[in-house]
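Limitations

Structures in this collection are predictions, not experimental determinations, and the ligand pose is part of the prediction. Treat each record accordingly. The example that follows, with beta-D-glucopyranose as the small molecule, is included so readers can see exactly what is and is not provided: the inputs are given verbatim, and the output is the predicted complex.
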Amino acid sequence: MNFKELPAHGRRLVVGGSVLALTLTTAGAAVGAAPASNEAALVPVRVAADATIEQRVDALLRQMTVDEKLQQVTLLPDYLVTDDDARKGIGSVLSVTDPVRINRLQHLAVEQSRLHIPILFAFDTIHGFRTIFPIPLGAAGSFDPAVAQADAAFGARESAAVGLKQTYAPMVDVSHEPRWGRIAEAAGEDPYLNSVFAAARVRGTQGSDYSAPDKVVASPKHFVAYGQPEGGRDYNTTDMSEQRLRNFYLPPFKAAIDAGADTVMCSFNAINGVPGCANAYTETDILKTEWGFDGFIESDWTAVAELRACPPKNPDAGECGHGVAADGPDAAAKALMAGTDSEMTSTFLRDFGKQLLADGRITMARLDDAVRRILRVKFRAGLFENPYADPAQAQSKQMLPDAVAAARTAAGRSMVLLKNQGNVLPLDPARSTVVIGPLGDDQHDMLGPWWGAGRDQDAVTVFAGLKAQNPATTFVPACTIVHADPPDNTPDDVCGSDAGFAEAVAAAQSADQIVLALGESREQSGEAASRVDIGLPGKQQQLIDAIKATGKPFVVVLFNGRPLTLGPVDASSPAILEAWFPGVQAGNAVADVLFGKVNPGGKLPVSFPQAVGQIPIYYNHEPAGRPCNVASKWNSRYRDLPTCAPLYPFGYGLSYSTFTLSNLRLNTAAMSPKGKITVSVDVTNTSGPKGDEVVQLYLHDPVASISQPVRRLRGFQRVTLDPGAKTRVTFTLDASDVGFYDNRGQFLVEPGRIDVYASTSSVGGLTASFTVN
Ligand code: BGC
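Predicted complex:
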């Protein structure tokens, strides 16, 4: 397909039909790093359908029998798909990653099916295929969309090499739910940050033309509001207002579609009682009609079957639960007519479609529309011209040095320095170092949830990474991790015993400096991995306390897929580095940061609560009639917590340098709803060494027809500055930034004052204001 090439430093962002732009200029003696502009990632590149492709789609559709159409809307996983399915013209297959098997099935489809339609092969390349990058939540901590774009681009290259042509990514679910394990998979709590990262990932995945041999079609998911399950329990129901849906949860999907994403996955959860894959309002009214999306929607795994009430009927087995469909045929009809085009894993459309057509419960027009959308994507993907991968070449495209180097850079840029009391960090690579902790020489967990085709043996452990830069490094595990899933898991799976603590303490006593590698197992985050207690699991806090008692300098390096409640860790540790699950280059990237080769510059993409009881806690909350005031009884507060703040706020992160913002300026005091305003601010590296700061721009509308969040991120820029250097960062705002959706789904730009904050986290900073009139 012919997506327009994106200019290298595109500057226009369209949200709700208007524009936000950002530029970076330099001032003073030193020059800041080239801008990895966040808004460049948001430049819309979607173009109108190609007439030649439309003609080919129509010509093919005219030849198709009903059976062939019903095959085309079927999507089966590796363990269900058969050669016979391929010969009958099945539409798509997921999770086959062996290029030989992919090719064999493709040859059957192309050579032996009546109409020779190729299969679309799909996989969850979420943060890398073989070269595993940091989990997406971590990557968002980089506040650098280039990190996400590189991850997606290398993932696409490695995926395409084995014959895959679709990835079920990016996951763009905004979430205020750290109990929910899948918060690991997207960019955290903010709609703007998620939008920037969604678009960057789509660009990396698809490029300007996903028929290219190293590109695949992206599938943003899970449409929509899957990130807000009640109680934080995966798959649970979601209930939200229209304005919430449109201001928080839809924007990243819109950004992904504007970036050209041509497939979308509908979600498991019900929104206001209507499951995502039977939701005509979100699928057809918003995605297809309002946004003009002409690609296709696949269901999530068995999400069509799950529409049924339990116990399941016709067939009397399989998934069930939502209770919006009586039986299999009813589920198929509801999903298709709501807008779902492709059914994953269950086969109700294929099995009951003919009868449903005969009964008038589905229409031929709608079935044709679904098939047309799937064929359109296959033509755009170039599958009819190039259906086969080259299995002989597939291996040679995996884990290439450029991908591995990018994974190391990405991991380093993603890490967030949470505490560095007394400048414990950086450590001295010439002094003896001991790595202690269950994650200290661990390969398996470094890959995090959704390790794609990654292999544990590819991962560099913390111990190996530090030893490579400091040969006088030793390792003592202190305790271990059991990698079990329910129902076999226990609370003692991670560091359940202190039997090894004495040995660890002895090692600490004889070393100059200590690295504690702690956190979650990778099984504790990701899909179906919700937790009610999000503290450091097992006896790891006791291990910290035992090491602290030695009086030796130590740093806690955390590996986890969600915000944790780190109060005790913060109280007991002089230095804390949030490393997330960093991917294959984990140990090297940790060593780069700990030894000061890389000056940490990441920021939290999500609030870290003090206590689970504060959840949901997010910086962009509405103010409330009795805003938090812990000095008063009759205000919004907790009786058993002396603050309403999180432990670490959104946007927070330290560096080995300190930075100062100054000179906040607006180019005008008033902006018309059709106009623009530029906001600029100086940032100076006031204490060296060379390092990165993320300048963040937030807005607040103090008087509006709907109570507005206390702050909303509307721009950010990560800059690199030499010691003493200063640069000026400029953001351009317009109606899309000051407006908001109301509860009727209308985008409103209201007159009045807008407060501006330029800051280095979601708290504090410089302020100014302007008027919209
Ligand atoms: C997940 C999706 C994933 C699909 C296919 C589901 O369980 O929710 O995110 O794409 O499986 O693997």
